[in-house]
Inverse folding.
């Protein structure tokens, strides 16, 4: 068993590795965890001793197979709890992250397995993030950002890389959620903001917003828009 702090480090390294092709630097990890660099270095040495990370000063850090397996187990618990809170306890999707941050450290494997079974073994959490199975395998999820699409494209929202309350509340305000149909009407050359049609309304989205929305091409037979 590992401490909550150690688990938080493993999860943070995993997420940073996902979004970076150059490895994870201690400065990035320090920024992600809002922790002093000296504390990060000390923790990485401890995790390396436990063979959870590969760490060499000035060369950054990466997860070992055991570290990655443990990180995925934490992420699995986090996303299952988020799903449970939204689907069973009527939490809004912008309210669940901090609660799940606490629940993800529960160590009972039986509880997690029973929770997964009770929920019907969901593949994705309320934000569209894939939920690892008990073996740490993630469902296939092809990430394409709305910002990468073109005028005339009609797309379905499949996930959001920013799970902050402020961004999710912004999406709620504009009635954008999972499986929402979005059509691109125009793109501003100056700042790459997009005019999109959502249901009967046209909305201007900044590049920051469109970079945080994952979409897939519209297949009419599979559309299940939220009302």
């Amino acid at each position: 068993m590992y401490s909550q702090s150690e688990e938080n480090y493993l999860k943070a390294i995993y997420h940073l590795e996902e979004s970076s092709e150059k490895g994870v630097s201690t400065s990035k990890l320090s920024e992600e965890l809002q922790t002093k660099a000296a504390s990060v270095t000390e923790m990485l040495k401890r995790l390396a001793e436990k063979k959870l990370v590969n760490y060499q000063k000035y060369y950054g850090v990466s997860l070992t197979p055991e570290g990655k397996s443990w990180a995925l187990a934490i992420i699995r618990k986090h996303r299952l709890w988020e799903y449970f809170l939204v689907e069973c306890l009527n939490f809004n999707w912008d309210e669940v992250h901090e609660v799940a941050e606490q629940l993800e450290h529960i160590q009972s494997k039986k509880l997690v397995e029973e929770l997964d079974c009770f929920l019907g073994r969901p593949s994705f959490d309320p934000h569209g993030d894939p939920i690892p199975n008990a073996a740490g395998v993630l469902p296939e999820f092809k990430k394409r950002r709305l910002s990468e699409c073109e005028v005339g494209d009609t797309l379905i929202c499949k996930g959001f890389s920013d799970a902050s309350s402020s961004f999710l509340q912004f999406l709620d305000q504009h009635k954008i959620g999972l499986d929402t149909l979005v059509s691109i009407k125009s793109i501003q050359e100056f700042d790459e903001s997009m005019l999109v049609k959502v249901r009967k309304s046209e909305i201007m989205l900044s590049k920051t917003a469109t970079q945080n929305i994952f979409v897939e091409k519209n297949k009419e037979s599979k559309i299940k828009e939220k009302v």
